[in-house]
Amino acid sequence: MTQAPSASTAVSLTRYLIEEQRAGRISPDLRLLIEVVARACKTISIAVGKGALGGVLGDAGTGNIQGEAQKKLDVLSNEILLEANAWGGHLAGLASEEMDTSHPIPDVYPRGNYLLLFDPLDGSSNIDVNISVGTIFSVLRCPDGVTQAQDQHFLQPGTEQVCAGYTTYGPSTMLVLTIGNGTHAFTLDREVGSFVLTTRDMKIPEETKEFAVNMSNQRYWQAPMQAYVGDLLAGKEGPRGKDFNMRWVASMVADVHRILTRGGIFSYPLDAKCAAQGGKLRLMYEANPMSFLVEQAGGAASTGRQRMLEVQPTGLHMRVPVFLGSKHEVETAVRYHAEHDAQA
Ligand code: AHG
Ligand code: MN
Ligand code: MN
Predict the structure, then answer these.
(1) Candidates 3.40.50.1820, 3.30.1360.120, 3.40.190.80, 3.40.50.280; correct CATH number of 210-343?
(2) Considering only CA atoms, which residue is closest to atom 18 of ligand 1?
(3) Sequence ranges of the domains in the chain
(4) Does 124 sit in the ligand 1 pocket, CB within 6 Å?
(5) CB–CB of 189/196 below 8 Å?
(6) Are 247 and 209 in contact (CB under 8 A)?
(7) CATH says 8-200 is which class?
């Protein structure tokens, strides 16, 4: 049984951030930014937790720029994050899955040097059935000399992220965070109202026997993915020589959290339905922050053909194929792509 942190030894998110600031690894503004995002996520957690009692379930009756129907909680979570981050003076601009273009900081407030991108509610198809959802965020520096951030200023590869994280609203609410010095997990103490460090330096096992993919898309996949998953399914009798188990929550946050905790590979590959858009998942506020967290925990993240964090974004809502998780398993999936491309 793991030991619960006692009140005297518990490290709160606030204390963790102050110590990182003292060590010179984050600026006061970045510390404020993370505190503000964490506070907004606590508010979202309360709304998610109320469920039907809060009148927050169901469709908003609107759509986002990506042609997806918005849930009431997609819209509410976006508003909570926008409002919380508008006035602190730490940001030059924000961008979100739920907004067509980036959002400047209102003129009445001071502006800072950071850019914040977020998926306010990830896994929204799971809200109405009471399955874990989450919030994903990524922080970049605003280019020097830019005070009025516009879309093009956000288009930086994932290697430029200074911070990334997600919260998962599950049986407990957790915040998983990296500032480029390991990946750390905090659990929300609901009575006290603060996040407490519960796992320092998460480490993803390099090998795994578990994969996460939406198998219903199998017939739409391209040849290397067909070959890779075909060999996973062949199990002990196949070329991999071991049986694999499968899990798919359909909330990226929940699937990635499982992988950070016990290993595995997560994949949303190109398929015939999403090929024209370049993939299903979004680079800037889904794939990049998750890839940063996974790499910081010793895992790997790729499009299948390129390290995810080195992809040069061409638009705020750009989509990419995603393979991330246990290092050797991601390398194996990448090898299937390389061998296929070499033959073609
Ligand atoms: P979002 O709710 O932010 O649009 O993201 C949903 C994403 C991701 O969380 C999940 O892994 C994937 O979509 C599920 O896709 P399928 O429904 O196609 O399985
Ligand atoms: Mn999402
Ligand atoms: Mn979303």
Answers:
(1) 3.40.190.80
(2) 214
(3) 8-200, 210-343
(4) yes
(5) yes
(6) no
(7) alpha beta
